[in-house]
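Researcher: Please predict.
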Amino acid sequence: MKTALLIFAVISAQLVSSSAAAAQQPDTVVLGGVVISATKAPSSRDALTQSVTVITGDDLRSRGVLSVAEALRTVPGAAIVSNGSFGSLTSLFLRGGESRYTRFLIDGVPVNAVGGFFDLSHLTTDNVERIEIVRGPASVVHGADAVSGVVQIFTRQGSGPVRATSRLRAGTYGTLDADAGVSGSRGGSGFSLHGARHSTDGILPFNNEYRNETVSGSTRFRPDDRTTLNLSTRGTHAEYHYPTDFAGNVTDSNSYRDQRRLTVSLDAARAIRPGIELRALAGTNDVTEFTDDVTSSNTGDIRDRYTSRNRRRRVEGRLAFGAPRGTITVGAEFQRERERSGSAAGPPGEELADYSSFTGLRTTRATYAEYLASAGRFVLNASGRVDDPSDFDRAVTYHVGSAVRLLPGSRLRGSLSTAYNAPAFYYLLDTDFTIGNPELSPEGARNAELAFEQTMLGGRASLTATYFDQKFKQMIEYVSGGPPDFKGTYDNLRAATSKGYEVEVATALRVGWAATASFTSLKARVSELSSGYQGDASVGDELLRRPRRSASAGISYADPRGASLSLTARHAGKRPDFDFRTFPSPRVMLPAMTIMDAAASLPLSAGGRRTPLQLTVRVDNVLDKRYEEVFNFEAPGRRILLGGRIETGMR
């Protein structure tokens, strides 16, 4: 790590002292693509100092990938963990961080619950234009929650002539997927509108059905050459039935969860003069969910319902202007988060009586500044941010990164960054089951990374190798309670380290053919326990559900006439978990697993002419492997989906 920091310092010094002559010698090799999520000002890939992965909507559709969770499984450093069947609780552990350490956004609007947790199970790829994944702390850009990284989903922007698409497919486990949409553009304006419904019976013998209805749309309007307005919205209603208890035992015939989410984003930009842009952003995210269950006893049936409603309102203003060899962006944000949760019980068919509830409110004001510079072969990213939440002290975060092109096609980059995460309301406030701890401190993180990038074969192949070293501090842990009510609480009791390396390779083999591969080695371990810790963890223990080694590989073919074929394999090594079927719960080791998926599409022709109809097939878990991502929660076996897709132009 000392070597990495030394190289990083040398690169930064070279940039600061680079001469004007160096600025006239730009390298001709460009990694390509503009990234929105890594910095406040949109930047090209070769101007960034963070680790970024971009997944396009076209790639997702060609592979028949329906869920965002499935799309993230092949991202280096990402461990997706699902509690069993389709629609079950699904989490992301990015670079060894907690599942609450990744910020999720839809068109710039944060969608995490207060405290950072986000359930991916209901987030589909319907009408998605692209997904950006930033690995490493990003609180300096996105505030709390962005401790291990960021995942942002962008709604499709209409382009070209107006066209309509529809898709229908069905298959194993009673799966039925149907969607339809229309999109297009004219001049500088465009739109897209899309609706989808997905349903399945699930993998368990009873009470395991799942349905998801998602509607999304976006519109882009340019009243003049200097002004752009973007409005997008996404609404989801999902219902998941589950017969399993907290340990994975199949015992319940009627419990289910229901979630309704509405996200709205507004982005307005105005070029005041050449090199100066003013931008205003506003967004809302409303989530209402409940869990409903009926239990039977000798005294009669009791219905128990848990309800939660989260509301987030956010506005931001920023100003970007030219500076020597770069761009400076300054801005301010205001965010208001409110959560009301409660539990009620009573006989079925009667009004339920509340027995536990809490309401939490947090407002956060933030200011930030960012400087992105380039001078010939050198790049510098420097940014700082101050967050001022209403219930905690100010949090200061930063990112400093630099990069240098060594040879044509070669680039070395390094960065230092910090992040923080504000506690969830249920950590701070009393509930019927826990005692809140208002003295909690925000969690924090620091990361250093060094990467080497190489493009080859005239830009048709690339190699990236990244080393990272993260330190998490003030991690919040549950503390068991004692007599008389045995209510537990939460405290800042743990620190951890997560270090490792990622290797990515991508190449265009020949016309139409492409291949990708990645490998991640991770050591995520407990590094410190406070004197008040009462759990069974020890210093040096591995963090739960993070594989020591993971890998993915894929090969695809796209014919100019519209046919496509893809094969993807992913591997997760051994990872620790708990067996919650007994108390105290012993540690267990989940075995390594390798899963293969395949997809193909074939356009139909009539009379020697291509028709707008495509036949599609996707096979999940081709080899029908039996495995678990959470101990005692069986994952789906082989699933075969057959269908068709129609795309037509409209006048």
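Model: The longest helix spans residues 2-17.
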